[in-house]
């Protein structure tokens, strides 16, 4: 699969986000955890570009136009503005328009035919079972959507924990708030974690925190914040020695 140039459901990633109520890193002296994989979902474990993201984009535009009573041009401008300022459309809507995040996510993640439009690679489940270490989903998407995708792909039992955007207080990647929350909750050391992602900004945060990084991309270049670049998630076991 060719997963690249994707954006999260909440907007494009931005390295400029800041945090004000940061969870702290696990205290030194705790028992070191074994290798733990943090997997992004969209465009990492399945292809969201083909059908899901276009549908989501239309749903977000319709939601914003309807609830803010503005036209599509204004809605586009607003989304771009909030993307630049906050790294996520939803954060701007919450802060400036009092949008209820649960309401927004519910209405922008309605996929009556989700089973028909999810595209994942054959062999994904077997690969995940073979891969040694704990496995955690870390997605900017809402919980129901994440669980639905995992179930449709048949990999819902492959993960030890799921962190959706609700569990990180609607502060999506690349904000480091969610990363730190997972490290604290799961009692992980960054050096034991490997973030697997298609979005570079998210990998930059992971690298800054001391994690190892895997970039899922069809592009050939490998930026300095990427430890391993793969074009398919199925390549992971073969690249284990480099992580
Ligand atoms: Mg992604």
Characterize the structure shown.
The chain is of the alpha/beta class and 243 residues long. The protein folds into two domains: 36-47 and 119-242, HAD superfamily/HAD-like (Rossmann fold, 3-Layer(aba) Sandwich), CATH 3.40.50.1000; 52-114, DNA polymerase, domain 1 (Orthogonal Bundle), CATH 1.10.150. 37% of the residues lie in helices and 10% in strands. The chain contains nine helices and six strands; from the N terminus they run βααααααβαβαβαββ. Helix 1 (52-68) packs across helix 2 and helix 2 packs across helix 3 (89-97). The protein starts with 35 loop residues before the first strand and ends in a 13-residue tail after the last strand. The structure holds magnesium ion. Magnesium ion binds at residues 6, 40, 42-44, 198-199.
């Amino acid at each position: 699969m060719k997963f690249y140039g994707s954006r999260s459901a909440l907007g494009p990633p931005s390295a400029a986000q800041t945090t004000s109520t940061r969870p702290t890193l696990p205290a030194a002296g705790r028992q070191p955890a074994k290798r733990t994989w943090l997997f992004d979902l969209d465009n990492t474990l399945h292809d969201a570009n083909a059908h899901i993201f276009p549908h989501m984009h239309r749903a977000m535009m319709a939601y914003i136009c309807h609830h803010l009573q503005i036209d599509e041009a204004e809605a586009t401008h607003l989304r771009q503005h909030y993307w630049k300022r906050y790294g996520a459309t939803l954060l701007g809507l919450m802060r400036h328009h009092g949008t209820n995040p649960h309401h927004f996510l519910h209405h922008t993640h309605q996929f009556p035919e989700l089973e028909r439009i999810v595209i994942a690679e054959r062999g994904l489940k077997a690969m995940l079972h073979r891969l040694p270490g704990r496995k955690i989903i870390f997605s900017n998407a809402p919980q129901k959507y994440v669980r639905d995708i995992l179930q449709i792909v048949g990999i819902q039992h492959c993960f030890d924990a799921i962190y959706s955007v609700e569990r990180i207080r609607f502060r999506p990647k690349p904000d480091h708030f969610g990363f730190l929350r997972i490290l604290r909750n799961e009692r992980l050391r960054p050096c034991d974690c490997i973030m697997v992602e298609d979005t570079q900004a998210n990998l930059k945060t992971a690298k800054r925190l001391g994690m190892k990084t895997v970039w899922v991309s069809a592009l050939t270049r490998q930026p300095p914040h990427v430890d391993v670049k793969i074009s398919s998630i199925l390549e992971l076991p073969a690249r284990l020695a480099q992580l």
